[in-house]
Structure formats: structure tokens, C-alpha cells
Amino acid sequence: MALANDGSLPLVLFLYEGGDDDDRFCESLMRALADGSRPPSQIAAELDAWVVRQSSHRFRELVARPELLERDETGWVTPRSTPNASGYVGTFFQSFPNLCSVFPLYHPGQTRIIQFLEALMAVPEHQAPDYIPDGGDVNDVQMMALWPSNHYATEAFRIGADAIRYYGSGIEIPGSEPETRWRNYQSCMAHIVMTGFSACEFTSALRDIMPCGKECPPSFDVGICNDPQEIGGHIQAAVQWLIHPDEVRYVYRQCQKQDRTDEKNPRDTWSMENWRVWKEQLRFFAGDERVDSPARELARVAVDQMEKVEA
Fold it and tell me: Could you tell me the sign of the dihedral formed by the alpha carbons of 23, 28, 29, 31, in that order?
């Protein structure tokens, strides 16, 4: 079966218009990633240089004029008055998730996103001035390491997921833009996790097909919806982690590391217990004709791939 994504054309990229010079700079980088006007490696180098340049300039200002360091009534140094390298990184990545929902798997745009993150991770690790601890002064500035793996944008990716996936979002409507955007986002998240750039697997739509509460699999009561006629978009998003060989191997290897997830860690996602539930759920969805046809077929493909990787 050909696994072409029904949303083969890119969607509209929504970015915050206006803002200050920092916002406009970040927007220009994301638009270049979207339209391919500059190589991903060049965009990564531009982002890295900007973070270092801006935070270093601010640090030199503070050395020359320590009175620019602002403190609140408790003596806490305000982040806006520090070199704030992490703030510049955050400024870029707060809108980056919008880019992740635009392109389907195998589209050059999604490939550029992944190549950009890989290029950042390939930059030799170095540091930029970041914050000043409580009670400290300019001489106590703490440095930020750029760009270690599994460190970045987890909250931004969660916020990006929540902006697409919520009750009544339209994901339940077959062929809708929200359905396509959520599927694209999940495909991109799977590849971002696989690069090691961000530990954002807790955004996986596989979690959305788990039975709700004390329900035992198989069940259509999955929390985000409980209607077999509305679950198709969630299935199509979830299986982006399973229907292709590289992805399913990655998920299986991670699940093999522990039998059960840590109940004290609500973001813990991979376990053999969950793997077995996902497979049972998907087999159940594939066999119910009330589920829309594309989702049923992809559920069958996912189960086949899971069984192949287990063999």
C-alpha cells in the first residue's frame, strides 16, 4: 500500500506579525525554512550567531553599566535585564511549532525542518551568557550551553500540540484542515524526537488512543473522543509514529526499555505495556466499519508494522 499523505500540499504558515526586531528576525528564519530560500545549515548558523551576538552584547553593556541590572522588590534579578541567551532561544522556538504542522511527511519542507535541527546539534558545543543568580552581580553571570541534545522546546512543542488538538478542534472531521495539520504535526514530532533534539514524545498522539480512565482495551472511550465516527483523525495522527520502518523501530526500542511507564511521571510515554495496548487498540479500530476508511487502513498498516518489528 502506498502511504502517501492525503495532505500532500503544505498548509498555511501562521506566524505572529509585527513585534520587535527580535520577533521579525525569528520570523524571517522560519519563512526561509518554509520556502527553502536558504539552506537549513545556513539558517542554523544564523540562529546560533544571533543568540551569541545578542546575549554577548547585552553582557558587555552590563559590564560597562552595572546599574542596568534590574531587580524586583525581593532582590530577584529580572530576566529582561540579563544577557538572557535562553530568552533568545525561547523567542525563536515559541513560534517554531507552527512550522511543524505545515508540511506532510516526505515533503521537502519537513525535511528542511529536520535538517535545520540536525545542523544546530552539529554545531560544536559552546556557551553564551545567560542569567545572573539571585543575589549575584554581573561577575556571577551563568552561561548557557548551545546546543545539547534532548534539551530544547519541550514546552513550546506541548503548547503547539494543544493549539491544534483540543475538544471540538475539527480533527474529528475527515479531510479537514485541523485533521491534516494534526497529522503533519505528529509526523514532524516523531522525527524531531528521533533526532534527539527534544524529548517531546509526551506530545505523541499515541497517548490519545489509550483507553480512558479504568477502561480496558479495546475501547473507543479514549478521552479526547468516544465516537468511532470521530476518532479517525486521532488514529491517523497516532500512527505517524508506527507506519514507517524507522519510526516503528524507534518506538519499539524505546518501549523495550521498561515494562510499564512511571506513574509518578505523567509524561512518561514508552513502555511494553503501552505498546501492547496501542496494538490492541489499532487492531480494534481497523476492524470497525464505523471508523472512516483511511483511518482503518492506516490502523491495519500500523499493526502490520508493529508485528514485523517484533518478529
Answer: positive
Q: What is the pLDDT of residue 247?
A: 97
pLDDT for 3 beyond 60: no
Are the beta carbons of 283 and 304 closer than 8 angstroms?
no
| Paired sense of beta strands 142-146 and 126-131, if any | antiparallel
H-assigned helices in the chain: 21-35, 40-64, 85-93, 96-100, 108-122, 154-164, 177-195, 232-238, 245-255, 272-286, 293-310
What's the rounded Cα separation, in Å, for the pair 126 and 144? 8
At 145 the three-state DSSP class reads strand
Show Cβ contacts of residue 309 under 8 Å, excluding neighbours closer than 6 positions.
245, 248, 249, 252
Report the alpha-carbon distance of residue 151 to residue 199 in Å, rounded.
7
More confident residue, 218 or 255: 255
Report domain extents, the chain. Answer: 21-146, 154-310
